[in-house]
Known about the structure:
The protein is an alpha/beta fold. The protein has one helix spanning 43-63, and strands at residues 4-12, 18-26, 40-41, 67-72, 74-79, 82-87, 96-101. It has one domain. Strand 1 and strand 2 form a beta hairpin.
Amino acid sequence: MDGIDDTIVKVKLPEGAVVSVAAVAPEGVEEDISAGDKLASFEGVERSITAISKRLISAIKDASPDKASIEFGIDVKIEQGGLTGLLAKGSAGATLKVTLEWAAGSGGA
């Protein structure tokens, strides 16, 4: 990507497991958020996923389908000494794939 580098960051999950995450570091950002014994927090990514999911669930409830599925990707970005989640661009520029289905005669849209 132009002007963006991937950085491997060690992250401690709430359960205590430590994982390595490929995070997007904007050009010019040299802050090492997982230097030494300090591990980056995954909470920002978790909050991003929760917020996106809640908004999508709300929209699906309003549409009232009989069946729904959603797919989205999250890029992990280094921001303000921690990690945050961004909707991933994915292939063909799609960030969300939403499928809504209504059974015949169910009165859906």
